[in-house]
Specification:
This protein is mostly helical and 214 residues long. It folds into two domains: 15-61, Arc Repressor Mutant, subunit A, CATH 1.10.10; 77-210, Orthogonal Bundle (Tetracycline Repressor, domain 2), CATH 1.10.357. The protein contains ten helices and no strands. The protein is elongated, with a radius of gyration of 20 Å.
């Protein structure tokens, strides 16, 4: 069954209100990461962040909405460096490699491992799956699609057999699945040599799929 749309309340209109909301959100994120969804209460968030329970409810409505907002916020935090990646000037291989290496750094961090487990455990909370997908995988998909589109324009390639949006998902999923199994399921630290070889295999496969047709 499809999850309901993620609630997006308008931000507070004053600077003080925005600071207070950001403080509540950050404290809530840390509580959810440390204690899980069931182990976190609105009272505990207010006690740690300061302020009133009325302010917390005015900003987020209820615990489910607060949790979904935290998932979105943490995704944005993990992906902040993506905005600084230059995919316009490097060659296709180097740009794809840079994106995939950033994915390794994000998924391989201990904080992200705990975050991913939190998402899986709380996936049944309304809005959480949508928040994670919209602020996580879809961001990577869009970036990879931009790279594939840029490469096609630069090479004058004919339309790809695999649509760029679909290929972007495949490239992302092929590495994410490996990293998730290693870090989240098996609890291993990332083997950099092994993952570097996997990235090169992905880059090689991608290059062959997008090479200009004779």
């Amino acid at each position: 069954m499809a999850q309901p749309p993620l609630r997006t309340d308008p931000p507070p209109s004053t600077a003080r209100g925005r600071v207070r909301r950001a403080r509540l959100l950050q404290v809530a994120c840390e509580h959810f990461l440390a204690n899980g969804y069931d182990g976190t209460s609105m009272d505990a968030v207010v006690a740690a962040a300061g302020g009133s329970k009325a302010t917390l409810y005015r900003n987020f409505g209820d615990k489910q909405t607060l949790f979904a907002a935290c998932i979105a916020h943490l995704c944005d935090e993990f992906l902040a460096r993506l905005a600084t990646l230059d995919i316009e000037h490097p060659g296709f291989d180097d740009a794809l490699r840079a994106i995939l290496l950033e994915l390794v750094d994000v998924v391989g961090s201990p904080r992200h491992v705990e975050f991913y487990r939190l998402v899986v455990a709380g996936a049944g909370v309304p809005g959480v799956g949508e928040a994670w997908y919209r602020h996580g995988p879809q961001v990577w998909h869009r970036l990879l699609t931009r790279l594939l589109d840029r490469h096609a324009r630069a090479t004058g390639d004919t339309p790809a057999t695999i649509p760029h949006g679909t290929l972007a998902e495949l490239l992302f999923d092929s590495l994410l699945a490996h990293l998730t199994i290693e870090t989240v399921i098996l609890g291993h630290a990332i083997d950099r040599d092994r993952v570097a070889a996997r990235i090169e295999a992905i880059v090689t496969a991608a290059r062959q799929l997008v090479a200009p047709k004779a």
